[in-house]
Amino acid sequence: MDTTPALFGFPRSPLSYGILNECPCRREGRRFVPGNADDVKRSHFPAKNKARIVLMSGISNYIFRQAGGPLIFFTFALVGVAWLSQSLRMLDLVINQSQSAATYLYLTILALPQVVGLLLPFALIAAVFYSLNRLYVESELVIIWAAGFSRWAVVGPILLLAVLTTLAAYVSNLMIMPAGMREVKDRVFEIRADLVNTFVREGAFTNPIDGLTVYVSENNAGGDIRGILVHDARNPKGIATYMAQRGLLANTPAGPRLIMFQGSVQWLDGGAGRLKVLDFEKYTFDLGQFDKQRGEASREPSERYLNELLYPEKTVNEKQRRKYFAEAHNRLSGPLYCLVFALIGVYALVGGTFNRRGYGGRIALACAAVLAARLPGFGFQQFTNSVPDAAFTMYVWPLLWVAGLLLLLSIRKFEYLKGSGLAPSPAVEAAS
Length: 432
Description:
Strand 5 (224-232) and strand 6 (240-252) form a beta hairpin. The protein is elongated. It has helices at 14-22, 37-42, 48-96, 101-110, 113-137, 140-146, 152-193, 195-199, 306-310, 318-333, 336-350, 360-386, 393-410, 426-431; strands at residues 25-28, 31-34, 205-209, 212-219, 224-232, 240-252, 255-268, 275-286. It is α+β, with helices and mostly antiparallel strands.
């Protein structure tokens, strides 16, 4: 049976076992204090500094794991919500073009990196709130400070996690997102350019584009179609209806065409007069509107890599250049908010005295600080879109927050649970 006593009357946790077993301590009344030189000699550590190094490494790894797990969970949760919004946008396209569920999932997953960089800071601060609050509730932070460690034993692992999250956001913004969005656009274009799925749907009226209605009774292999009706109302002054016994979809050097055989075309003379009918043996219907995007070389900002945003083609107009420029600096400055949010969360829970009644008020203030830090960042991006020379503000703002929060955490006006012996705060003494 384990006879290791509870520390300051708090229930023992896995971390308290490790500290009490590895750090030489002695009892003074109802409290444990760090041992003296004789205690260190009797311990299995040859020196006190070595013991502190071993403990610091163990505590850092422990806190890193406690915050890393919730970070993964909250990231997947927020990305899942974003996936729902992306999936609804893609759903209409996939249904209208008769695509498979695999294509639907493929397109929605490729579009996710567009929001991952924005969501990672929020997932990180949620993980910091959850992990540090749990360590408080289970008295493990009290144990750490009681063993003589400063707040940096807690801040260090969180900062390391924030740096790794920042790097992940950079990889997503600079590499994964443009590659994914390019693939989405190319795949969507291929789907819309598939005339068989876009233009022909056997036994159903379809509207491939505004003002055009198509009906086909039979769709045979090889592009051969039977029982064709095409109602073209794209031009209000030239509305016409085409009917043919059979037809063929073809991609010609001039663009896609519908070649109809043995049919007729009906239209109103002058737009509103006598109905005219023209019979034909062969008629070629122009479907060039489906192919109008083929010649467009310009890509959206989300589809461009960093060098393409900073140095676009000479044919790009000045307004679009400024938009690309602001997007490039947004990708470079956005991940810095991972550091800002992590430090806000740490300072909210570690930057004050221990409180057994909880930290709901501090967390609420931290959420307000998160909004105060992030919302101006969006404003600076819009300002840079109009005034490119103001791009530096997109970096200065988050870096000022980082510097200010690090300064606040460095101030020694903090209730450590240590002293010449180990003098606990009144709240801890009362809890014992």
